[in-house]
Specification:
By secondary structure, the protein is of the alpha/beta class. It contains 10 helices and 7 strands.
Length: about 325
């Protein structure tokens, strides 16, 4: 299928997906030495974050999951401060105290990764309510996994958003696994997007490993929300290439299954082969981006390694907003 993307758009999408992939590969390489705390990698799902966020402005909001590096970077966060946060350093976005599962950058509308399964639903819905009350044109996007769709917060948030026609898009990253359990073992319907019918809102399932399809379909739902037509559910089918967490022994699936997905359903490889085949870009164009990324990544590593850790007494800072009165 031919693409309607311009060369500039192709290079931008490739850059953003490769940026996430190389960041995650670096985190995997540094795990056990420099990376602090539990970490969940986004490898294999880059097309979802990049495709959706390509339609968002800096003023739009996103909420994430415990697997949040990709969303953070796609929304515009910097490599160096993101990596410093995972190193537990003071120069990180959360001053080294949030780590991988609480990575956030409010300056670009990234309201935070979340260690609580399903923790982003009500935050995104609350952000959408604030937008509506102030008469804004922004939208909120809630990224979530198929496993969290069975939590009560999913139904609470979607029901409220539908009732009040809030400008929020619920983006399910159905990566095949809720920790160690397949979605088919916990759901009574083949497609999670069908749940949208119960709330009277649109629900669409797409190929989450096709960045152009994600970009195009999410643009329609985002524009719909901006125009005051309310929420929707977008289910993006993908596959989690890495384990649930870095030290996951992955006894619940075979290495052959993972290898097949990596070779045949890799979103970056699929996109690269497509745009080169259609002569939208050359291999030299993509190599130039790869070289640029390697330089940016090395700078980020140097920044993180040379940054200092927070002092012990700083653990009690940033706990409250404004002046707090303590009662005896």
């Amino acid at each position: 299928m031919s693409t309607n993307l311009t060369k500039e758009e192709v290079l931008k999408l490739y850059y953003e997906m490769r940026r996430i992939r190389r960041f995650e590969e670096t985190v995997k390489e540094k795990s056990g030495t420099d990376i602090v705390g539990p970490t969940h990698l986004y490898i294999g799902e880059e097309a979802i974050a990049v495709g959706v966020c390509s339609n968002l402005t800096k003023d739009d909001y996103v909420t994430s999951t415990h697997r949040g590096h990709g969303h953070t970077l796609a929304k515009g966060a910097k490599l160096d401060r993101s990596l410093a946060e995972l190193y537990g350093k003071k120069t990180g976005y959360c001053k080294g105290k949030g780590g991988s599962m609480h990575l956030a950058d409010f300056s670009v509308g990234m309201l935070g990764a979340n260690g609580v399964v399903g923790g982003g639903f009500n935050i995104a819905t609350g952000a959408a309510l604030a937008i509506q009350q102030r008469g804004g044109k922004e939208v909120a996007v809630c990224f979530f996994g198929d496993g969290s769709s069975n939590r009560g917060t999913f139904h609470e948030a979607v029901n409220l958003a539908a009732s009040w026609k809030l400008p929020v898009i619920f983006v399910c990253e159905n990566n095949g696994w809720a920790s160690t359990t397949r979605f088919s073992e916990t759901g009574s319907i083949p497609r999670l997007s069908e749940r949208a019918k119960g709330y009277g809102i649109p629900g669409i399932t797409i190929d989450g490993n096709d960045v152009e399809e994600v970009k195009n379909i999410s643009a329609e739902l985002i524009n719909r929300a901006r125009n005051g037509e309310g929420p929707s559910i977008l289910e993006c089918l993908s596959y989690r290439i890495e384990g649930h967490f870095l030290a996951d022994p992955q006894l619940y699936r075979t290495k052959e299954e993972v290898q097949e997905q990596y070779e045949n359903n890799n979103p970056i490889t699929r996109f690269t082969e497509k745009v080169i085949r259609q002569q939208l870009v050359s291999e030299a164009d993509l190599r130039e981006i790869d070289d640029k990324l390697e330089a940016e990544l090395q700078d980020a590593i140097t920044f993180a390694e040379n940054s200092v850790f927070p002092e012990a007494e700083e653990a009690l800072e940033d706990l409250f907003v404004g002046e707090v009165t303590l009662y005896e």
